[in-house]
């Protein structure tokens, strides 16, 4: 209840909720890579737009932070959290862009393990949208958030490692392996960025508690 | 002597000592990769156990931090330090697991430069076990710790660069190069994580002094 | 004007200006890779010297920070900023060293996109030298610094992605692709480090304002 007397705090929390929703939207578009005959170019272009929306959200938050005397969370923490949320969309946009740029659309399908990476990202985005509104109260239930984040990040690591095993199995020519690995690396980085978000939230909690 | 009146502080420092010991244990298992005819699967499985022990240590530390009113170091710093120690074992476990998963056991031997990377990690782990008990006093002798850490990290960088030169020499097929590089990258990341530990300790020292 | 009564502050700001100048010198040497028939070994050796000069600068700053009671910026921030400046030269030195070590001098020329990465680094270094002296006042004009940093980092990302497309086009043999990618990765990391510098400056500004 310590923040209840500062009504404008809601603007800050609303930003983080909007960013989470925007990430879910981005991951939803990325997941279309698993459809039959996806339009790789369109997916990439739509993700550039989503990333752009996020840049504008972040910009508005920073202006608000700079023009507000008392902020509900430490300025540096809000700054950090916004940066990590931004990283998620950067990596997702990069993954989709590389699929298109490298002409991986010529493959019969993306490797199953890569689609599994995207499934984990979808679950992480859902979790983020579910827990972000609870950031305001920062109560003990947040513990569930980072336990679950950690579990999903382990799932993501496993999918990534299985992708590498597949890529190095000799099924693809060397250059195709390199291209696919580049994409898998971006998806893995997006997965790690979700965990970084959880780590920032956890460190805020540790400080405030 | 500033902490001498808070007897429970020792629990915090004991955690960091235990984590250092655990890391030395992990690096010792990793070093068996340089033996004649090592059991790659067993090494990987034993390292999963060591990493799991570390996760439990970290979990106990975080609970302790959350339930203690006055902590001997800044909460965020303890949190950071535990995270960096955790990173070391993550990378070591990953390296051993990839050697096994990629079937690199089929090579007559791992490249000599990779064994040199592991030798550096062994020296870094010894250094950590030696200096961690001095964290409590945080006196000027810690300066030796980070000077030495820096020196070992340079040794590690050199071993890694020589590994890359060897891998790109044309001695191995392209896919084998990629697999070996993946392993070398994890060893290099473990080496860098040791230096991150040293950086956190140094920044604590800068703040406290 | 808040620091005007502490004359020795200038020593701290002088360090950051010297570090920026040193980085510009390093990037200037790196840019010689784009000349006709460059001496790859000499370029690499000269960059080792520049990096060494920077290590000494950093060492002097840390001693100063440790022996000064009131510092003009938060100790941890100065520590961070020096570390990020150091990262830039580490990556630049590594890039030039890998070009030499891998014998990439045998290629008719480095890929055009790689020279474009170096052009972006040159612009980033100029920007750093221009804005570093304004760190002392930390006034609103710093906003231009990070807006411009962000723009250049996007240019760098684009050059890097175009390099990857070229490398994976089938023009080079697989091992050459791997070597060139290693170099491009270091250049990209240098470009990202410039943005990290800007992020640290921005977070200092957010805290102080």
TrEMBL record, chains A, B, C:
Signal peptide start-end: none
InterPro entries for the chain: PhoU-like_sf, Put_Phosphate_transp_reg, UPF0111_domain
Pfam family of the protein (one): PhoU_div
Coiled-coil parts of chain: none
Family under the similarity heading: Belongs to the UPF0111 family.
Name by which UniProt lists this protein: DUF47 family protein
Native source species: Glycomyces albidus
């Amino acid at each position: 209840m310590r923040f209840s007397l500062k009504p404008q705090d809601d603007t800050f929390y609303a930003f983080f909720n909007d960013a989470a929703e925007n990430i879910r939207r981005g991951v939803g578009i990325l997941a279309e890579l698993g459809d039959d005959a996806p339009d790789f170019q369109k997916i990439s272009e739509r993700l550039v737009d989503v990333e752009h929306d996020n840049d504008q959200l972040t910009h508005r938050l920073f202006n608000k932070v700079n023009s507000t005397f008392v902020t509900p969370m430490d300025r540096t923490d809000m700054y950090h959290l916004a940066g990590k949320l931004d990283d998620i969309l950067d990596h997702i946009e990069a993954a989709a862009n590389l699929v298109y740029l490298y002409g991986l659309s010529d493959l019969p399908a993306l490797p199953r393990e890569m689609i599994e990476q995207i499934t984990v990202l979808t679950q992480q985005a859902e979790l983020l949208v579910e827990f972000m509104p609870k950031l305001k109260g920062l109560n003990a239930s947040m513990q569930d958030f980072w336990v679950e984040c950690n579990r999903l990040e382990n799932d993501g690591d496993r999918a990534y490692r299985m992708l590498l095993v597949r890529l190095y199995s000799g099924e693809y020519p060397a250059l195709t392996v390199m291209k696919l690995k580049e994409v898998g690396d971006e998806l893995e980085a997006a997965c790690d960025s979700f965990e970084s978000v959880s780590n920032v939230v956890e460190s805020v909690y540790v400080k405030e508690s």
